[in-house]
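@channel sequence for tomorrow's demo:
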Amino acid sequence: MAKRISSKERKDLKHPDEFVSFWTHAAERANKLATEYRRAILAGSTALLTVIVGVVIFSNISERRATTASDALARVGRIATGELRPEGTPAANPDGTPLPDDGLPHFKTDKERAEAALKELDAFIAMSGNPLRTEGKLQRGPLLLSLGRAPEAVSAYQEILSGRVDDRLRFLADEGLGYALEAKGDLPGAQAAFEKLSSDAAAFGNTGFYKDRAAFHKARIAEVRGNAEDAKKLYREVLDKNPTTSLRDEITNRLAVLETK
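structure tokens (generated this afternoon):
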């Protein structure tokens, strides 16, 4: 298991917010192609991904290589979340000053932007000696889903899981596989993928590493399948067993909706 990183090492990690922003916004674009209930779930991996990148970087590779790789991966994130400039967008601000040049390409549509980010990400993954290749592969999933390419997202996550990966990354990959299978319409497969999260979380002993998410997905799939009573019971169990869960607001909202049906 990767070691705990110091406060200095965390400070040295460049652009941590870019990883957060990338994961969140890529997830949101994926949800536009699916249903509302999936948005908050995908976005829930945001903070976790940031921590994982930091842990892997500073426990396994040199700072110089870490900086180079993290900067390159952060650039992908900035492209994926860059400001859209549709046809007819003024070439200058209202006051006549030129639009800011952030050194990144800008696109007219979400689709063009996602395709460009995916192309940049694939080039990043193909880099020789890339120490963050697995992290890059993990970030392909949300982009593929945002483009409506669920089967490819399934294959991408399965490829990650077929190799040796850090336990925390494995948790993310299993969760991502569940999302992708769900988007593909394979609910039994999605449920099986989400059920693996319990054993993934168990690898961290009593640390409570995302055990609430494993239980939450069980309740959510019951809701998706139309088993409202089972879903309500399972949601309440998540709250009872995990009183400080970050999913509390999401679960409360879902319970409120289910109670009106």
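heads up for whoever presents: The first helix runs from residue 7 to 12.
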